[in-house]
Amino acid sequence: MSKAPSRIPFSLPRLSEEEMNRKLDSMYGQLSQRRTVRSFSSEPIPMEVLEKAIRIAGTAPSGAHKQPWSFCVVTNAELRKRIRAKVEEEERRSYEERMSQKWLEDLEPLGTDAIKPYIEEAPALIVVFKKVHEPDEVSGARHPNYYVSESCGIAVGLLLAALHEAGLATLTHTPSPMNFLAELLERPSHERAFLNIPVGWPSSDATVPNLSRKPLNEILFRY
């Protein structure tokens, strides 16, 4: 039986209702400007900025505190070119064979297709891997992780918010299947690709679809 961790005191500052609302209004004002971008400047991003954003992502809660994630930062141009080639190979199959007609119709207003230049154009990719289990290097046993997808999803949410706070644009990209990412990045067998996130500043001519988010009364239900 594993030994229970020691306990330490914990508290949070007790804010006034006015201060709570002020902070949340400010946060909403900032995050409501976050958009998915598909046209990036090639200007390099300071690695320290990416490291700090990933450190914030690592504060996410996780099942049994297993922290079942790895964040791979890809800035090498040749490797991004190889990733793009494999991405477009899988995307062509998806658009031509795997996606339903309804799915294609839902994507049509966004103007997406199998060609993904942003994989090369963005100065960095953050490829997130989920650890489906933890291998014991001595015995070879597999120690389970719990709520892996949920944990990684929360961490990615924090990552996107942190990158937006730093003034960087992102795209959440999920080519399916994504096994080639583990192969190209030589990740261990217990890791599975979860998400590919191009990161950078928007290009000078970047545009985004004029979309709106659901209002509060469509997503909040009081009991």
Quick structural overview:
By secondary structure, the protein is α+β, with helices and mostly antiparallel strands. Helices cover about 40% and strands about 15% of the residues.
Give the number of helices: 8
Number of domains: 1
Strand portion: 5-15%
Helix content: 25-40%
Indicate the overall shape. globular
CATH topology: NADH Oxidase
**What is the string of helix and strand elements?**
HHEHHHEEEHEHEH
Biggest β-sheet: count, sense, barrel? 4 strands, antiparallel
Please tell me the overall pLDDT.
94
Q: How far is the first residue's CA from the last residue's CA?
A: 41 Å
**How does the helix and strand content classify structurally?**
alpha+beta
- Number of beta-strand segments: 6
Q: Report the CATH C-level class.
A: Alpha Beta
Description:
The protein has 223 residues and is α+β, with helices and mostly antiparallel strands. The chain has one domain: NADH Oxidase (3-Layer(aba) Sandwich), CATH 3.40.109.10. It contains eight helices and six strands. It has helices spanning 17-31, 47-57, 77-98, 101-107, 118-121, 148-165, 179-184, 216-219, and strands at residues 69-74, 124-131, 133-135, 142-144, 169-170, 191-200. The chain has a four-stranded antiparallel β-sheet. A two-stranded antiparallel sheet has the order 3-4. The longest helix has 22 residues, at 77-98. The N and C termini lie far apart (41 Å). The mean pLDDT is 94.
